[in-house]
Design brief:
The complex is a heterotrimer of chains A (302), B (263) and C (356).
Chain A (H helix, E strand, L loop, with lengths): L1 H10 L6 H13 L2 H22 L10 H5 L3 H34 L4 H15 L4 H11 L4 H8 L14 H25 L3 H9 L4 H30 L2 H7 L6 H11 L5 H29 L5
Helix pairs in contact in A: 3-14, 5-9, 5-11, 6-9, 7-12, 9-11, 11-14, 13-14
Chain B lengths: L6 H25 L10 H8 L1 H34 L5 H13 L2 H11 L12 H29 L3 H10 L4 H12 L1 H16 L3 H5 L5 H11 L3 H26 L8
Chain C lengths: L3 E12 L2 E12 L3 E5 L6 H9 L6 E6 L2 E2 L10 E4 L11 H11 L4 H14 L4 H4 L9 H13 L5 E5 L7 H18 L2 E6 L2 H7 L2 E6 L2 E6 L1 H6 L4 H6 L4 E9 L4 E4 L2 E4 L12 E6 L5 E2 L7 E12 L3 E8 L2 E8 L12 E6 L5 E3 L1
Parallel strand pairs in C: 3-8, 3-9, 6-7, 7-8
Antiparallel strand pairs in C: 1-2, 1-4, 4-5, 9-10, 11-12, 11-14, 12-13, 14-20, 15-19, 16-17, 16-19, 17-18
Helix pairs in contact in C: 2-3, 2-5, 3-5
The chains are: A mainly alpha (302), B mainly alpha (263), C alpha+beta (356).
Chain lengths: 302, 263, 356
């Protein structure tokens, strides 16, 4: 529908007499000039500045040295743990969020539970950053309530290898905003599943399992995948929670970049640009993959 | 299909509820333990009595208000104009507004630091005022995806073109149209975006910290690194602020005009 | 009805304290097309959903063929259903939608493909042109025909149509209802059709069950329902009706007084006594302006309103404070009626419906 109307509306106003078009043309575009200027100055150019810087040496000449220096073990390890935490928290968050969303919408739970859960999800998905780290330290830190309670019944989670300042500790913490974010985004998609589809499938002889496999999952898949990518980017760029939780003891990319910006810990300013470039590449790739997948396999979407 | 509730739904719900409620309970409990042997609100007294708390909180509230103003000025005319005159640019503008979700905040602020330093053509970082402005701009960018979507959804429920033409026939100019016709009609949507922006900005750490501004986020981090019980109290306070913002949005949603063809 | 195929016996349905369907009975013959007609909330959709298996009856029994299906799940009943909102699966192509029931039923691929082709041929959306399209690329009428093909593909025993035409625009609605009826006759499939549109029900049904308040007010052929409505509700709901209040002046000779004029309705009063008040109903098409051969009853009045509707002119005539509508054919050689003129209407006493 959109690809038919869009060119039509674009052509129609410019077809009438040229004098009027010339008079109207600039004002039309002036309307969004402030926005474009702003986006350019404070979003696109700063990003491009870093990307260009990543391909220069200290004298401003073209160089691949900074990019090459990314492939040193310590920086690679930082990327790797960042990707692992982001991916784990995104996939677990997406699946858990989906399960909760389905439970409250299709599970026949009371209506008030549904609205309470959605309101709470709106709050929790925005409860990130430093205070979230405090909350999990108070829960699962060495003196946290859960740690202490479990200790009293004879389970010392820290002796069993758990540490809040670790991969799993950080993942568990990130889930606190990842799961609700999934609930918030996927709920409208599940609501969009028409009751009649299930009834039509039933009259055609399909079992609930067949209905889910052939209709529900394919219909939800694009929203699910899109949210997954969003959750990944959300965790990948997050720094405040990790920084407040672990200081700099957990070496993830944003913390490394933070330290580099504050004090050039890598002793190479252009390596900082390369670090930022690497982050853009990874979140960009995640989005690119999503767009590619969606246009390729979901032809039924308008 | 049926009204019977499934045991799996209850299981999913209870596991989720346990995961989300335990940290909140634990944090609250922890925040009450400042005085040995008894539960008390001592940690809260200490926090509220700390002048640094008052200063940084006030600073962040001020920044949040300016961020909201800038966001509204930037987003409302743009979204309106896109709907009215340049619908073919919609995909492009939507793409731009979603970029801050893809480019991490730390990368954006890193770019600012390098581009707007004291020897750049636009040396915003050379003065405190300029840095404050840059922080507000950065926050406006962070909240751009949410603000734009909120306003655009609001505009979708009213017939922008007809309202505009009706106002033009009655002799209204652009400022009147946007200020007195469009804005009041999307006010609920704008307010929703505003409170969401407030929730995001109030405790933001990365940008404020890297621009060296005395905001609430860096203060929280500082307290967390040096004190034991106050952080828990601050976490509870932050949660209540976020909850408050979201509740306001929920209440506002009830007053929002409904689209005749809304799903 | 000799060859009963679907038997709905003493079905009731209550939601909490609300009774939606109240002791409903109906036998449907093999190959018969029966409509449930009634205003919204009359229970017609609930009965249909109980036949489909989406609602469990609070009491009663549903028998299809010789089998009691009352407790069977929807996917075990082998019924085809078409919904008001099309309900095509958006992620599947036209061909995949039609093949859905065959696929879950384990029909081999080659046979399923053949059947899909056959079905799409039947609804005149050939597989070569439409098979690979997605639902959003089709018009509402096309989507509903695909939904019909999908419902029919697994050769169901029963076809259930839940207001399938309500979401379509007027022209498509008429052509599709004729198509549905033609396909139904061709396949000989027993069909239940739920609608609130009396014209729709009258035009395509073998029989109609007019429902009100969870009960069947009357079950009969369209001819019976229209011409011999059993209750006041049916008479009012189906078609336009002029209702006149009358008093029985003499029960013996069948004299009834209407607006201080007298009508002779011998043999139509079924047991009313002198002095009883009656409601007399007349279809607009049964009334003529002026005298007409064979019309034995007449009433005098004054023309109050003239609506020109093209091929007919609807005239409203005031008779003692009551308005009577009648249709006269538009005839270019005679001048149209004029408001304010005195007029006489005539009708056959045999067409008068006495409502109790």
């Amino acid at each position: 529908m959109a690809d038919v109307t869009a060119p039509g509306t674009a052509i129609a106003p410019s077809a009438p007499p040229t004098a009027r078009t010339a008079a109207r043309f600039p004002t039309r575009w002036l309307g969004i000039a402030p926005f474009i200027l702003f986006a350019l100055l404070f979003l696109i150019l700063p990003t491009l500045y870093l990307i260009v810087g990543a391909f220069q040496n200290a004298d401003g000449a073209f160089s691949l040295n900074s990019i090459r220096d990314l492939f040193t073990p310590s920086i690679l390890a930082a990327y790797w743990i960042s990707i692992k935490v982001s991916f784990a928290s995104a996939i677990i968050g997406a699946l858990a969020g989906l399960a909760i969303a389905i439970a409250i919408i299709r599970g026949g739970l009371p209506e008030w539970l549904r609205s309470t859960t959605i309101t709470f999800s709106g709050v929790a998905s925005n409860f990130a950053g430093v205070p979230l780290a405090f909350a999990f330290l108070a829960t699962l830190g060495r003196l946290g309530l859960v740690t202490v309670l479990l200790n009293e019944i004879g389970i010392n989670i820290y002796r069993l290898g758990f540490n809040i300042l670790s991969f799993w500790g950080l993942t568990l913490t990130y889930l606190f905003f990842q799961i609700p974010l999934m609930v918030v985004i996927i709920t409208p998609a599940i609501d969009g599943l028409k009751k009649e589809w299930g009834e039509a499938a039933a009259t055609l002889g399909a079992s609930t399992l067949q209905y889910w496999r052939m209709v529900v999952i394919p219909v939800l898949w694009p929203s699910f995948l899109g949210t997954l990518v969003l959750l990944f980017a959300n965790a990948f760029g997050a720094i405040a929670t990790a920084y407040a939780l672990t200081g700099s003891s957990l070496n993830i990319v944003p913390i490394l970049l933070y330290a580099q910006i504050r004090g050039d810990v890598l002793h190479n300013p252009n390596l900082g640009y390369a670090l930022a470039f690497g982050m853009i590449v990874i979140t960009g790739l995640a989005n690119g993959f999503y767009i590619w997948f969606r246009t390729r396999s979901e032809r039924w979407l308008k | 299909m049926n009204r019977k509730s499934s045991p799996w739904a209850w299981l999913a719900f209870f596991v989720g509820a346990a995961y989300f409620l335990l940290p909140l309970i634990a944090t609250f409990e922890f925040s009450l333990r400042m005085e040995r042997g008894v539960y008390s609100f001592k940690a809260y007294q200490v926090v509220f009595g700390d002048p640094r708390f008052q200063e940084t909180f006030l600073y962040s509230v001020t920044v949040a208000i300016f961020t909201i103003l800038l966001g509204v000025l930037l987003v409302v005319p743009t979204a309106y104009w896109i709907r009215l005159r340049l619908p073919q640019l919609r995909p492009f503008v939507e793409f731009v507004t979603l970029l801050p979700l893809v480019i991490p905040a730390i990368v954006i602020v890193f770019g600012y630091i390098r581009m707007y330093g004291s020897n750049s053509p636009l040396p915003l970082l050379a003065s405190t005022g300029g840095t404050n402005v840059l922080l507000v701009i950065g926050y406006a960018m962070l909240s751009l995806p949410y603000m734009y979507r909120a306003v655009d959804t609001g505009l979708r429920t009213i017939d922008v073109r007809t309202l505009t033409e009706a106002a033009q026939i009655l002799g209204a100019g652009w400022v009147t149209i946007i200020g007195r016709i469009i804005l009041p009609n999307v006010l609920i949507a704008v307010l929703s975006g505003a409170f969401l922006t407030f929730a995001i900005v109030i405790g933001e750490f990365t940008m404020a910290s890297l621009l060296n501004r005395p905001a609430f986020g860096p203060y929280l981090q500082l307290v967390g690194a040096n004190r034991a019980y106050e952080p828990a109290a601050l976490a509870v306070i932050s949660f209540i602020i976020t909850w408050g913002c979201m509740s306001v949005i929920q209440v506002l949603a009830r007053f929002a005009p409904r689209s005749p063809n809304s799903r | 009805m000799s060859d009963t195929f679907l038997s709905i016996k003493n079905i009731s349905k209550t939601f909490g304290s609300v009774t939606v369907v109240d002791d409903f009975n109906l036998d449907v013959a093999r190959g018969e097309f029966v409509s449930f007609l009634g205003p919204s909330g009359c229970g017609k959709t609930t009965v249909l959903r109980m036949v489909a298996g989406f609602e469990e009856p609070s009491a009663g029994q549903i028998v299809v063929g010789d089998k009691d299906v009352t407790r069977l799940k929807p996917n075990q009943r082998n019924v085809g259903m078409v919904f008001q909102a099309y309900a095509l699966f958006p992620n599947l192509t036209v061909a995949q939608n039609v093949a859905f029931g065959l696929k879950v039923g384990g029909v081999p691929k080659a046979e399923a493909d053949r059947r899909v082709g056959e079905m799409l041929e039947l609804i005149k959306l050939p597989v070569s042109e439409y098979g690979d399209r997605y639902p959003y690329q089709l018009s509402g009428g096309q989507q509903q025909r695909i939904a019909l093909a999908r419902a029919l593909a697994p050769k169901p025993k029963l076809l259930l149509l839940d207001e399938p035409l309500s979401a379509l625009d007027a022209k498509v609605r008429v052509s599709l209802r004729e198509e549905i009826r033609a396909i139904q006759k061709e396949l000989g499939i027993t069909t239940i059709f739920v609608t609130h549109d009396q014209e729709e029900a009258l035009s395509i049904s073998d029989r109609i069950a007019v429902m009100y308040g969870g009960k069947a007010e009357q079950v009969g052929t369209p001819f019976e329902i229209y011409n011999r409505p059993a209750t006041k509700f049916v008479a009012n709901f189906v078609g336009t009706l002029n209702v006149l209040e009358g008093t029985v002046a003499d029960a013996g000779s069948g004299k009834v007084r209407v607006a201080s004029q007298e009508l002779a309705l011998a043999g139509k009063l079924n047991g009313s006594k002198t002095g009883d008040t009656l409601s007399l109903a007349l279809r607009p098409e049964a009334i003529a302006l002026g005298a007409r051969p064979g019309n034995d009853s007449r009433l005098a009045g004054e023309i109050t309103d003239v609506h020109f509707l093209g091929s007919v002119i609807r005239v409203r005539i005031g008779v003692g404070g009551k308005q009577i509508s009648l249709d006269t054919f538009n005839n270019s050689s005679t001048p149209p009626p004029v408001v304010g003129d005195k007029a006489e209407i005539s009708f056959s006493s045999g067409d008068v419906l006495v409502l109790h």
